[in-house]
Amino acid sequence: MPRVYVTRHLHFSAAHRLHCDQLNDQQNQTVYGLCNNPLGHGHNYELEVTVVGEPDPVTGMVIDLKKLKDIVEKELISKVDHKHLNHEVAFMRGLVPTAENIVVAFWQILKDKFEPCRLYELKLYETPRNMAVYRGE
Ligand code: NI
């Protein structure tokens, strides 16, 4: 059977502050620049969730993308949308909320949710020009 990759695009807005406790204030300012602003700032994040599987012989679908969307919204988007990632999201506690750390944390939440399909890739756009990709490696 052919293996096919299907992707759903989702959106959320959240605030964060990039600040690492292992660096002093001057170092944080140098490393993170504007993103170190003490009271935080916001982004309109875009998330692409790609799963891989074999099209069902009857429905022709790898996964019902409406079902995939509902799962991601329930398990993930509802926990981060319009939240401050440093203060309000339990699974982000203790992590510097860079796009890299966020996408890895998202993977842990979503990785087992699409049986019998397999989560293949998460692509997180922090801005239209900056994104992080994670494939669970
Ligand atoms: Ni930022």
Which features would summarize this protein structure in a list?
single chain, 137 residues, alpha+beta, Tetrahydropterin Synthase, Chain A, five-stranded mixed beta sheet, 3 helices, 5 strands, binds nickel (II) ion
Report what the structure shows.
The chain is of the alpha+beta class and 137 residues long. 26% of the residues lie in helices and 31% in strands. The chain contains three helices and five strands; from the N terminus they run E-H-E-H-E-H-E-E. It has a five-stranded mixed β-sheet with strand order 3-1-2-4-5. The site of nickel (II) ion has 4 residues, from strand 2.
Question: Quick one: CATH class?
Answer: Alpha Beta
Helicity level? 25-40%
- Principal-axis shape equals elongated
Average residue-wise pLDDT: 97
Amount of beta strand: 25-35%
Please sum up the structure shown.
With 137 residues, this protein is an alpha+beta fold. It has 3 helices and 5 strands; from the N terminus they run βαβαβαββ.
Sequence-ordered SSE layout with sheet pairings:
Layout (H helix, E strand, L loop, with lengths): L3 E13 L8 H8 L8 E13 L11 H16 L2 E2 L14 H12 L7 E10 L2 E5 L3
Parallel strand pairs: 1-3
Antiparallel strand pairs: 1-2, 2-4, 4-5
Nickel (II) ion binds next to strand 2.
